[in-house]
Amino acid sequence: MIDVHCHMLPAIDDGARDLATALRMAELAVADGITHTVCTPHIYPGLFPNTHAGIREAVAGFRGELDAAGIPLQLSYGADIQVVPGLVQELQDATLPTLAASRYFLFEPPHHVSLPRLGDLLHNALLSGYVPVITHPERLSYIESDYELFLNAARQGAWIQLTGGSLLGVFGPRVQRITERFLEDGVTHLLASDAHNLKNRTPQLAEARAAAAAIVGEEESWRLVRERPQAILDNAAPDAVTSPPALRPGAPAGALRRPARKSWLARLFS
After folding, report:
1. Which run of H or of E encompasses 69?
2. Which reactions appear under catalytic activity for this entry (predicted)?
3. pLDDT tens by residue, 67-106
4. Which distant-in-sequence residues (6+ apart) come within 8 Å of 204 by Cβ?
5. For the chain, what is the radius of gyration of the CA atoms?
6. Could you tell me the residue range of the domain that residue 218 belongs to?
7. What CATH number corresponds to the domain at position 175?
8. Is the pLDDT confidence value at 46 over 80?
């Protein structure tokens, strides 16, 4: 598996607090079946003022530490990018890093304030040849009221990335239900760990991938953690990649929605 969103780099943001934590996170990732991690620290002006050059240097240093520790995890990098003025220009100037130097970049909407011009921002990025990967929309406090906006963003060409822990209930039942809804509506491109620590946000995907398979099927669940992440590493054009079910020609949204569960009595006599 390939994890395209992970805060494993030590002491650079609110992820791994030190090298020992980062190395242990890498060990957990490998043990879980992750072969390649894209390190994506926050770039958040005023809070996490990371730079492209600083992230690149941190990854180079961490690669050396992984080699010394004998941990067989491949690394690439990008950033968890908040909405900033001149976003597209900063991508073009390489002031902001894309994922593994590809056309894809992580786009983190504000957690508590809806973006009234989200469609315009995404449209401008797409017109400029970039593919915004919208990170964990299921965890936004306003997602219920703006859910259709994110479906439209996926139809427009943005990619949707959900957090594995969201599907497993780590962020509570509300977020879990919304995560299931995104999967059932067939618009989810990627599943990533968004790992930050060794406690409740670990760099693991296997359990979440299996949970996703119960909704979207085995084949599509592997696309969430293998095929599409590999397409990002390869800088493949979006139209060369298998789309999520509802974004394929002629497929209606909600086509994967599961029927209501039977009562225990109905199941007993079925």
Report:
1. helix 52-69
2. O-phospho-L-tyrosyl-[protein] + H2O = L-tyrosyl-[protein] + phosphate
3. 999 999 999 999 999 887 789 999 999 999 999 999 999 9
4. 28, 29, 32, 34, 164, 193, 195
5. 18
6. 2-269
7. 3.20.20.140
8. no
